[in-house]
Amino acid sequence: MRGRKDEEFQQGGIDSLATNYKFADDEEFDDDGKPKRTGTVWTASAHIITAIIGSGVLSLAWGTAQLGWIGGVATLVIFSIITGYTSNLLADCYRSPDPVTGKRNHTYMEEVRANLGRLNCIACGTVQYANLTGMVIGYTITASISMVAVHKSNCFHEKGHAVSCMFSSNPYMIGLGLFEVFLSQIPNFHQLTWLSSVAAVMSFGYSLIGIGLAIAKIASGDGGRTTLTGIEVGVDVTSADKTWRMFRALGDIAFAYSFSQVLVEIQDTLKSNPPENKVMKKASTISVFTTTSFYMMCGCLGYAAFGNSAPGNMLTGFGFYEPFWLVDIANIFIVIHLVGAYQVFAQPVYHKLESWASENWPNSTFVNKEYPIKIGSKIMYTFNMLRLTWRTIFVILVTTLAMAMPFFNDILAFLGSLGFWPLTVYFPVRMYIAKNKIKRGSMKWCMLQLLNLLCFLVSLAAAVGSIQGVSQSLGSSKPFQFKV
């Protein structure tokens, strides 16, 4: 009898230990075995705002000038509505099959695979990672232009506006690349929150400075000539140029709303209570509303300030070099913001290759071993040889391509056209239809397909316009010898 009781006691102790272990395990890990997520609506909003408000905001005055008051304002509103709606569709696909209790899909590609199958997953991955790489190239170009702008504003201040202050952007791109090599060693999205928060504050800072400078220019009576339909045929441009510019303007505005490719990775940082899809919808709504308000102010006030001759980059246009110190601050804010945005867009690219390598070589020290760096008894940082090597090579390639193609507006339009339709509209709509089994030919199915078609046509027009613009720029500039 005693032996049986001892056995029961021992078994009970084992069960108790197992229960306590499970409880501790549940406290430290999520349902997919990964460390407990701590993201909230505010951290997600910071990530999204960092991704949305980027270099695209600087070209909105130019875009509004091409489309005019009617077309410019309407396009901004329509793009914001479409982006907000499709972001909500995407949020519901994070877990499959149930949006609250289903299995997690950690990346955009996993969502597409779970809902649309392997072939669509491959197509999505091709577009997504090409677009993400293009985004960081665009951000490298824009950040270097802002650095040159600081140099130019001080040159104009010291020597006068009659002096030709032209500088190569190459040294600035190289310097930015070296800094990004260092930041690229931040392991994942979960540890990027502080950088995204700083970048989001910077984005508000330079947007407000741009808006303030535009208001000052308008109040001084020095505003440019504006029209309901934008630049005028026969006055500003030829009819062909007007058409090409309108197409590129659509691409610029699409670029300003191109953030869907990182939404799933951002959603994967959220804690599971309340449900991730509800928190993500709220974060997307807050972010899209906030950024659209800034976009409207930057686009409309910038257009009112410069008129039909609005520059491609509002803060580096003629007339914005005084007060030089304020312009310098704005451009420094842009650089800091884009340094953070670079990492937000690069993280999915980093993660994809590293996950693939870890799956294929699970026992490799080079791929998997983490080396801690301690200060005292506390581990401050860990580095990994694959992460160090691969991310450094990626940054070098991005910097080299940016130096070869420094054409601001045309690059933005091309990136916008490349990513907007497939990643912001097509895949979210297709996944929503498949997940909710919406009947083919029903009213809702027809409306979703109409949205799909219209956005495809807009992206196609923007792509054609941007390719034409890039070809013109290539004809008049030499790679690696561009000066601003």
UniProtKB/TrEMBL annotation:
Domain of life assignment: Eukaryota
InterPro entries: AA_transpt_TM
Signal peptide: none
UniProt-listed GO biological process terms: amino acid transport
Transmembrane segments: 41-62, 68-86, 194-216, 286-305, 325-345, 388-405, 411-429, 450-470
Amino acid transporter transmembrane domain residues: 37-470
Main localization, broad class: membrane
GO cellular component: plasma membrane
Localization terms from the record: Cell membrane
The keyword Transmembrane belongs to this UniProt entry's keyword annotation: yes
One Gene Ontology MF term: symporter activity
Entry keyword set: Amino-acid transport, Cell membrane, Membrane, Symport, Transmembrane, Transmembrane helix, Transport
Keyword match Transmembrane: yes
Stated family: Belongs to the amino acid/polyamine transporter 2 family. Amino acid/auxin permease (AAAP) (TC 2.A.18.2) subfamily.
Listed name of the protein: Amino acid transporter transmembrane domain-containing protein
Organism: Chenopodium quinoa
